[in-house]
Write a structure and sequence with these properties.
mainly alpha, 553 residues, globular
């Protein structure tokens, strides 16, 4: 019997992992991210475009004659006016196009940056925090695929917005003969959005939490805005060259059409993106470069309670919004003394201020600005009120509620922080507004008037919390609809006063029932009714949460 023959086998050599393999699966993740954001991104893009287009149309009705534009250019030339808008060079030839670039780029750049930051954190750090990234990475997906896909989606979104600006703005009468101006206006917004997306690609490497990464990136946007404002209000403008927002404004669309500053955006974006990829190789999946601080081996008495634990979870966001609204109030207060000169020749603004009432233009203008401050505070309370939904979907609520902790106490603690924190940030905003406004007007009594005017909006914030908890309790999948409340409040409460929307539209918003202090007299009846409505909504939402199934992992 012959011995069996064996065929020698040659083992294939193991190929080392190369840089190209680190991007394996990027295309699939891009398609998956676009599928997930098929509603979110179009809403962002259309909202940013329509807001800009409505402003462009409004400029045409507010300043139809060259004399009107010359008057507003003179009033915007003060340091406070330049800090709120942009560089003085736009004022040399204040056409509709230059007016749009001057007054809108600084504002919309912040919103475009916010969109980009949220895209990056949603598809990178949030995926790691919920352990989905680890599951996906166990397949044929490279280490850099998630970040590359997120950056690609952010770039696509920003380019789509820029293209929409370039193509559609001439149709709204914005210097339609200057197509290059519209193209540069759109390219500038795309560039600044890509820069802040790249900044977020760095911040997501430092912390293990999506909220922390978003907070750091948003802080960078805030610093960029402050540098731009400080530079534009100064004589040299040097500080503006330290800000990506300042670079985009200095392209001067519809004026000089200078593309050179966008090269700075390109260099910074490439540098930050490269840093993000490099830093991602220095940490484990799900971890951050910044080590977690070791806590006390024994929890404090406060941390062992639902309210203390909720406050610990919310404190970073609460501190950030408090500081931001204080500075925002101080910024608006600094121009109260110039309100008469800035607005005296703007007929439509004057009509809006006349409808508000008030002994002086400064009081009426303060009442109008208070709506903007309150809407920002409403953003905080919606985020805080929806935190239980994030805890539930992340699987962290289930082990807590498996103990003796009741659903009502758990959600109630978060709601107490949302309502109390919202009132606190309003107070801080009013304090900054009052200190700066009193100094600007030379009237110490204005301090307490503006503090009281800000706190008066607290019941409307509580109603906003009530709407969020009703959605969370009864319709958890639709919880994001709570964002309609602050957005609608801004549209009808601020823009509606200028565009003369009918009163019934303002009455739908809880903010429309708050007395417009300091211009109007205080009325306690609507405050009491709003408080009762808020209490009823909270009770209804808690009842729904007690009755529905918990989303488990």
């Amino acid at each position: 019997m012959s011995a069996p023959t064996t065929t020698p086998t040659t083992e294939a050599p193991t190929r080392p992992v190369t840089g190209g393999n680190a991007l394996a699966g990027t295309g699939i993740l891009i398609r998956f991210a676009l599928r997930r954001d098929r509603v979110r991104l179009p809403v962002w893009i259309l909202a940013l475009f329509l807001g800009t287009a409505m402003t462009a149309q409004n400029f045409k009705s507010l300043y139809p004659e060259p004399e009107d534009r010359a008057n507003i250019a003179d009033s915007m030339g003060s340091p406070a006016g330049l800090a709120l808008s942009g560089p003085r060079h736009y004022l040399d030839d204040y056409t509709f196009g230059s007016m749009l670039g001057h007054q809108m780029i600084g504002f919309t750049a912040v919103l475009v940056g916010l969109m980009s930051v949220l895209v990056i954190t949603r598809h990178t750090r949030a995926e790691e925090e919920t352990n989905r990234a680890e599951l996906v990475r166990s397949t044929v997906v490279g280490r850099h695929a998630h970040l590359a896909a997120a950056l690609s989606v952010a770039v696509v979104a920003n380019l789509a917005l820029g293209l929409l600006f370039a193509v559609a703005l001439p149709g709204f009468g914005i210097d339609s003969v200057d197509a290059a101006g519209s193209l540069l206006f759109g390219a500038g917004h795309a560039a600044v959005g890509i820069v802040f997306a790249a900044v977020a690609a760095v911040t997501v490497q430092f912390t293990a939490h999506a909220r922390g990464a978003s907070g750091m990136a948003l802080a960078v946007i805030g610093v960029a805005y402050v540098l731009r404002a400080a530079g534009d209000s100064g004589s040299s403008g040097a500080l503006s060259w330290l800000s990506p927002i300042g670079w985009v404004q200095r392209t001067y669309p519809y004026v000089d059409n200078d593309w050179a500053p966008l090269l700075l955006c390109l260099v910074l974006a490439v540098g930050c993106a490269a840093a993000g990829f490099t830093l991602s190789t220095r940490r484990d999946v799900g971890a951050g470069l910044r080590p977690e601080k070791l806590g006390s081996p024994v929890a404090s008495d406060a941390l062992a309670t639902p309210l203390g634990f909720a406050l610990r979870l919310h404190r970073g966001m609460l501190v950030g919004f408090g500081a931001g609204l204080f500075l925002m109030g101080a910024m608006y207060g600094s121009i109260l003394g110039d309100a008469d000169d800035m607005l005296k020749d703007v007929d439509q603004i004057q009509e809006a201020l006349d409808r508000i009432g008030g002994a002086t233009i400064a009081e009426s203008f303060a009442s109008m600005v208070m709506v903007v401050i309150t809407v920002v505070a409403a953003v905080y309370v919606v985020m805080a009120a929806l935190r239980p939904r994030s805890e539930e979907t992340a699987g962290r609520a289930e082990p807590l509620l498996a103990t003796g902790l009741s659903r009502t106490r758990w959600v109630g603690a978060h709601l107490a922080v949302a309502m109390g924190g919202g009132t606190l940030v309003l107070l801080l905003a009013g304090l900054g507004f009052g200190i700066s406004g009193a100094a600007s007007l030379g009237d110490a009594g204005m301090l307490w008037e503006l503090v009281g005017a800000s706190v008066a909006y607290a019941p409307a914030l509580w109603v906003t919390v009530g709407v969020a908890v009703v959605l969370f309790g009864w319709f958890p999948q639709a919880s994001a609809v709570a964002w309609v409340v602050p957005v609608y409040a801004f549209v009808v409460g601020y823009l509606g006063q200028i565009l003369q929307f009918p009163d019934w539209m303002n009455n739908i918003s809880p903010f429309g029932h708050v007395p417009q202090l300091p211009a109007a007299e205080m009325s306690w009846t609507p405050m009491l009714l709003l408080t009762l409505v808020a209490a009823g909504l909270v009770w209804l939402g808690l009842a729904g949460f007690r009755r529905r199934d918990l989303e488990t992992k």
